Amino acid sequence: MNKISASILNVNKEDAVHEFYNLETYKVDFFHIDVMDGKFVENNTYELMKEYETTLSHITNIGLDVHLMCENVFESVDDFLIEGVDRITCHVEALENYSFDEFKNLVEDLRLENVKLGIAIKPGTDIEVIKKYMPYAHMILVMTVEPGKGGQKLIPETLEKLKALKEYSDQEGLDLEFEVDGGIKEENAKNVIENGASILVIGTALLNSKNPKKMVEDIKSIV
């Protein structure tokens, strides 16, 4: 069955706990925490997402799916590696600034904490860049919009990248989940899943849905 990672990027801060509770009742699989440092992307949500992560760690048993859109990978991992985190995803574009030995140290650090490693790739980045990292990851996150803000429309060409990476993973015998983030809604969910995604990050469409519980049920049941 498909999984839903609910983006909390556009959750109203004044009503955050209530909105978190509602998302949990819709039976989402993860809370997706979009961490932006104001450098890797223009927006800065670092402190807000740290606050949200801490709150969620105290009120839910649903796994926290942390997406680091940050230049300083190691510092950001340290800041967001708390109890309740199921997976932490770093961008391949940021990892390229480190040696491969440093990357493998990160892999080992997360393994010791029993936290899954995800690696994200932007729409404009060639898939060849990510291939050397894939054997060390648990999940690949394909960005279907430019990272940095919510509410964007899915870029159709990114699904070709998703399909190619999924085919490469299968050819190499890698045990990887594929997550997609950006512009996901009911109208395009089936196409996204057919191209290889098993985890769909949904934010704006879910928060604005007239029947979010049914939306989650319908998308999770797509074959």
CATH class annotation: Alpha Beta
Radius of gyration: 16 Å
Portion in helices: 25-40%
CATH-level-4 superfamily name:
Aldolase class I
Taken in chain order, the helices and strands follow as EHEHEHEHHEEHEHEHH
| Low-pLDDT sequence parts | none
Strand order of the largest sheet: 1-2-3-4-5-6-7-8
Might you state the CATH topology name?
A: TIM Barrel
How much of the sequence lies in strands comes to 15-25%
Report the CATH architecture.
Alpha-Beta Barrel
Count every beta strand, where a strand is a DSSP E run of 2 or more residues: 8
Distance separating the two termini: 8 Å
Count structural domains.
Answer: 1
Shape: globular
Structural class: alpha/beta
Mean pLDDT across residues: 96
Enumerate how many helices there are, as a single number.
Answer: 9
Give a short account of the largest sheet.
8 strands, parallel, barrel
Which short descriptors sum up this protein?
eight-stranded parallel barrel; 223 residues; alpha/beta; 38% helix; TIM Barrel
Quick rundown:
With 223 residues, the chain is an alpha/beta fold. Helices cover 38% and strands 21% of the residues.
Plain-language structure description:
The chain is an alpha/beta fold and 223 residues long. The chain has a single domain (3-220), classed as Aldolase class I (TIM Barrel, Alpha-Beta Barrel). The chain is built from nine helices and eight strands. The protein has helices at 16-25, 46-59, 73-80, 92-95, 100-112, 158-171, 186-194, 204-207, 212-220, and strands at 3-7, 30-36, 63-69, 85-91, 116-121, 139-143, 177-181, 199-202. It has an eight-stranded parallel beta barrel, surrounded by six helices. Helix 3 links the parallel strand 3 (63-69) and strand 4 (85-91). The longest helix has 14 residues, at 46-59. The radius of gyration is 16 Å and the shape is globular.
